């Protein structure tokens, strides 16, 4: 079977990288994004959980009128548009995202004091040192491979006294019901659950996130787990959410026929979770607010 071959190859790679002591290189195992205009539009339609989490994050960041804010990994720009209202006519919000499709949607929201560009955490060199009052990453950090380098750069572009806000997926030993079903469906079709087929490998525990931010020089102002749950209206919306939120990585790397079988099995299982409110999806996140010392 096509997949089991690649699983064997990954296992060999894993063993050789471990033996070479270069476990960090394993992170290259994150599949590349599979973006399209359609997926970006889908993200705009199903990203209510990220928006709810984002508003909560902003409430911890104490954004003030006149602030200059960077929304790093802004997606289709919905939260940045909300932030622009908080900073008012004398403030400025810039949203950046590596996906040109998402930025194309975000650009429809542009107006005075709100702008968007295609860029990612790997190159913030176009921003001058000490130029932002606030930088936030809402549900983005678990997609970033080189987190230490990203934090170093964010530290540089923040003003002294400026604040960093992160909401990111919690690494937890307790998978949600929906995640259990995904695992079951994958196992049914492939016989095992290869890594990185449906979850980012870069999720963190509270301690890992705290240590990383402190190492970058931030003083921790707030660190908490935010246990959001939300309802998708039906199995199709759950699958759209998983695909769009992962930039098309959900089940990428599986052949088309197997993917279709996994999705059919998953839809059937998800339909058993339907209630009058829809299907409950849990999105446990960690929130961190850090300050660059004055
Ligand atoms: C789950 S979406 C969150 C989007 C937005 N922050 C929101 O609240 O709706 C994750 C976003 O992170 C972006 N992303 C992935 N890797 C990134 C990186 N290295 N730097 C900046 N953004 C990145 C993706 O393109 C995607 O739009």
Describe the structure.
- By secondary structure, the protein is an alpha/beta fold.
- The protein has two domains: 1-30, no CATH class; 33-291, Vaccinia Virus protein VP39 (Rossmann fold, 3-Layer(aba) Sandwich).
- The chain has ten helices and seven strands.
- Strand 2 (92-97), helix 5 (100-107) and strand 3 (114-118) form a beta-alpha-beta unit.
- The radius of gyration is 20 Å and the shape is globular.
- Mean pLDDT is 89; it is low at 1-28.
- It binds S-adenosylmethionine (SAM).
- S-adenosylmethionine (SAM) binds at residues 47, 50, 54, 72-75, 79, 97-99, 102, 120-122, 138-140, 143-144, 245, 247.
Topology diagram in text:
Blueprint: H1 2-19, H2 37-46, H3 48-60, E1 68-72, H4 78-87, E2 92-97, H5 100-107, E3 114-118, E4 132-138, H6 147-157, E5 158-169, H7 177-190, H8 206-215, E6 219-232, H9 235-245, H10 256-271, E7 279-291
Parallel strand pairs: 1-2, 1-4, 2-3, 4-5
Antiparallel strand pairs: 5-7, 6-7
The chain binds S-adenosylmethionine.
Distance between the termini: 58 Å
Run of helices and strands: HHHEHEHEEHEHHEHHE
**The first-level CATH class name of the largest domain:** Alpha Beta
As a percent range, the share of helical residues equals: 40-55%
InterPro entries: Methyltransf_11, Methyltransf_Superfamily, SAM-dependent_MTases_sf
Domain Methyltransferase type: 70-164
Enzyme class: transferase
Keywords: Methyltransferase, Signal, Transferase
